C-alpha cells in the first residue's frame, strides 16, 4: 500500500515538471525581408521582445533603389508584383525545424507582401504546416489586412494568426 502511495505521489510531483519542459521547448523565430531597413528594425524589436531567433530573408540579388521605384512600371519590384507567379531567388535556406511559432515580416508592397515572401514560404513547405505563423509588416500608410488576406488565401492550409503592423516605434 505504502509503495502504491509513493508511486502516485512521485507521479504527481513529476507531472508539472514535464508540463514545464514541454512549455520550455516551444521556440520562436522572427523571419523577415527588408529592402531599406525599416522592417529590419521592427524584426529586431520583436526578436528581443520574444527572445526569438532572428533570421533575414536575403534576396540572391539585392534590390537597388531603381528596383524599388513603384512609379516605374518596368522596375524590378513592379514587374514582380505584377506577376503573381514571380518567385525571386533567396540567398540561403532557413532551418525552421526547431520552431513552433514563426513571425514572418516584410514591407507592404502594393498592399500585400513582396513576392520574395512567397519564395520563402514555397521553399519551406511542407515544414511550415502545423506551425503558428504571425505576419508583421511596416508600410508607408497601408494596413496589414490586405497582406493577411492574401497569405491566407494563397496558403490556406497554413496556420495564420492575426498580423501586426509595426510602423510605430
Ligand atoms: C515597391 C514598393 C511598393 C510599396 N507599396 C506600398 C503600399 O502599397 N502601401 C504602403 O503603405 N507602402 C508601400 N511601400 C512603402 C513600404 O512599405 C515602406 O516604406 C516600408 O516600411 C519599407 O520597409 P523596408 O525598409 O523594410 O523595406 C512600398 C514600397 C516599395 C519599395
Description:
This protein is of the alpha/beta class. It has one domain (27-165): Rossmann fold. It is built from five helices and six strands. Strands 1, 2, 3, 4, 5 and 6 form a six-stranded parallel beta sheet that branches. The chain starts with a helix and ends with a strand. The model is unreliable at 18-22 (pLDDT under 50). It binds flavin mononucleotide (FMN). Flavin mononucleotide (FMN) is lined by residues 34-40, 68, 70, 77, 107-111, 138-142. Flavin mononucleotide binds next to helix 2.
**Largest β sheet strand count, sense and barrel closure:** 6 strands, parallel
CATH superfamily: Flavodoxin domain
Q: How many DSSP-defined strands?
A: 6
What ligand molecules are bound, each kind once? flavin mononucleotide
Strand content: 15-25%
The rough form would be described as: globular
Helix content: 25-40%
Q: Which structural class do you get from the secondary structure elements?
A: alpha/beta
Amino acid at each position: 500500500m505504502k509503495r502504491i502511495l509513493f508511486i502516485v505521489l512521485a507521479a504527481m510531483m513529476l507531472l508539472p515538471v514535464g508540463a514545464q519542459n514541454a512549455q520550455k521547448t516551444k521556440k520562436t523565430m522572427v523571419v523577415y525581408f527588408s529592402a531599406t531597413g525599416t522592417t529590419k528594425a521592427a524584426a529586431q524589436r520583436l526578436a528581443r521582445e520574444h527572445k526569438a531567433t532572428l533570421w533575414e530573408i536575403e534576396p540572391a540579388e539585392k534590390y537597388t533603389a531603381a528596383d524599388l521605384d513603384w512609379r516605374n512600371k518596368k522596375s524590378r519590384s513592379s514587374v514582380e508584383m505584377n506577376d503573381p507567379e514571380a518567385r525571386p531567388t533567396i540567398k540561403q535556406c532557413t532551418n525552421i525545424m526547431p520552431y513552433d511559432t514563426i513571425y514572418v515580416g516584410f514591407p507592404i508592397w502594393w498592399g500585400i507582401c513582396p513576392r520574395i515572401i512567397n519564395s520563402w514560404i514555397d521553399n519551406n513547405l511542407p515544414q511550415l504546416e502545423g506551425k503558428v505563423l504571425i505576419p508583421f509588416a511596416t508600410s508607408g500608410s497601408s494596413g496589414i489586412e490586405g497582406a493577411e488576406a492574401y497569405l491566407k488565401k494563397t496558403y490556406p492550409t497554413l496556420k495564420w494568426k492575426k498580423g501586426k503592423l509595426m510602423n510605430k516605434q
